[in-house]
Amino acid sequence: MTTPRWVVVDDVDSAINYTGPWFQDQGTQDSVGNFGPAYRSTLHGTKNNASLSFAFTGTSVRVYGTNNIRNDSGVLDPTWDCFVDNISIGPSTPFQYPENNWLFCSQNNLVDGPHILTVNATVTKAQTFWFDNVQYVPSASVSLADAAVMVDSLDPQLQYGEGWQALGSTANLTTQTSSIFTFDFTGTSRDLFFSVRFFDGHILGISLSWYGFIPREYPLTATTSTYSVDGGDPVNFLLKGLPPNTATTYNQRFFETTKLAAGQHKLVVTYLGDSKTTPLTLDYLIVQNGTAASGGGNTSHKSNNIGAIVGGVVGGVVLIALAIFAFLYIRRRDKRLSEEQPAEPKTIEPFHYLPVSTSTVPPPSHNHSSSVVTYPQVQSGDAFGLPGHSLHGSMPSFGHTDIQSIIPSGSSSSGGTRPNPLQPMRNHGHNRFPSSSDLSTPVSSNAAQYVPYNPAGDKAQREAAATAAVVQSRQRNAQQPLASPPLSDDSGSRVILHEDSGIRLPQTSEPQVVEVPPVYTPG
């Protein structure tokens, strides 16, 4: 019959659900009794009614804790009961003395499958109930990632050398000098692998701990032994013996290996005492992140599996490195291409006035009030080649002799050339708007200040302003004879007025009507 391997679930494991006022303890009960310290020196306690539950998939389960019974005239405190799938499996028989690693309840021969264990603690007089760990035999399909697996001293995978013998039905021991124990297993580091796997019944773990006991029936003088992993330097550990008249002590951890790298490992333990010193005993091994699979198999399959896992990990790392390299290469290439291309301007540059070299201003005349600005007649549809769209909308068309200057008269102290605000706006060859017809205009040096043209302004407002300016000019010069200077290419500056495309959105209201008063002539 195959010896089962149990999974040990410590009280601090997140898989255990606590209900009620539980608290944690670290090592305060380790010296209680002769059953050794609590597992990993941790406990959960409660001084009130409380419960815990644990879900598992397997065939057997048992619960351990610290026995701490108070007997008050036959009334025991605390008490507890255990349930599997809401069916009571009953508590173990209480013990009158405090002991760690005490069996609270157990149930074997469960149906192989999922189960829920529940432990209810009843406390009546504030006597602490201490819970330590749950152990269960897992189903074959259960993943043992991060599990602690107990390997019993009777497990067939353990190899005892000459001098080893059975100690009853629970342990093995040796009193022969240089007796050797060996155990082949497969271990890994938690930092490299995220889960554990089975390899033909051997153990995959990150550490191994050896537990035994010190029997009072044998010599009690302290001695030493050694262990080594993979032929490394031997590491000494102490077998401390017992004081006289002391009871046998159980669940003593003699040593724990360091974390192991991935691969095949071999543990060798050598006893350095003799028949007059404390014997070396083995009760069980705890392999962290180990496997409970059992059965034979040759070691060649193990090395193949190890090679496959290592190859997969290395391949994954190489793929990640290649992906990072490709990302950095593409990023550098895009950056280099973007630097080679000229950057587009991120701001809109204003139009700049460029004076026409052929435009001149005639010398100032003695009669400053006689300067005249003339506009050529612009017919509908002529402005930008768009039929039916007049440059001035409903404005009447005037000939170049019909309109007096709209620039007020004044004195001028300079006859030099002045930039014309109506000169075409150009920005290094980029003409953003179509140009209108040329307007030849002699400009006096004392012309009124130009108000910039707003292409987004209302058409009616611009027409009204232009009409008012014409009327005001005619009234001011009503007594003066109309004069029209000769229109020659060298008698004035050329003015080009850029308009928009002439397209206007339909007006939502009635068009404004601008009335122009009659023009009266002298006489």
Describe the structure.
The protein is mainly β. The chain folds into three domains: 1-142, Galactose-binding domain-like (Jelly Rolls); 144-306, Jelly Rolls (Sandwich); 349-504 and 512-523, no CATH class. It is 11% helix and 31% strand. It contains two helices and 29 strands. The protein has helices at residues 299-340, 459-476, and strands at residues 6-10, 17-19, 23-26, 42-46, 50-67, 70-72, 75-77, 79-84, 87-88, 99-107, 113-122, 129-138, 148-152, 159-160, 164-167, 171-174, 180-187, 204-205, 207-214, 223-229, 235-239, 249-256, 263-271, 280-282, 284-288, 352-353, 425-426, 438-441, 493-496. Strands 1, 2, 3, 4, 5, 8, 9, 10, 11, 12, 13, 19, 22 and 25 form a 14-stranded antiparallel β-sheet that branches. The radius of gyration is 53 Å and the shape is elongated. The chain starts with 5 loop residues before the first strand and ends in a 27-residue tail after the last strand. 26% of the residues are buried. The model is unreliable at 188-203, 291-304, 356-451 and 482-489 (pLDDT under 50). Keywords: Membrane, Transmembrane, Transmembrane helix. It comes from Hebeloma cylindrosporum. This is Transmembrane protein. Residues 338-523 are annotated as: Disordered. Residues 355-374, 435-445, 463-476 have a biased composition (Low complexity).
Short précis:
It contains two helices and 29 strands. The chain has 523 residues and is mainly beta. It folds into three domains: 142 residues, Galactose-binding domain-like (Jelly Rolls), CATH 2.60.120.260; 163 residues, Sandwich (Jelly Rolls); 168 residues, no CATH class.
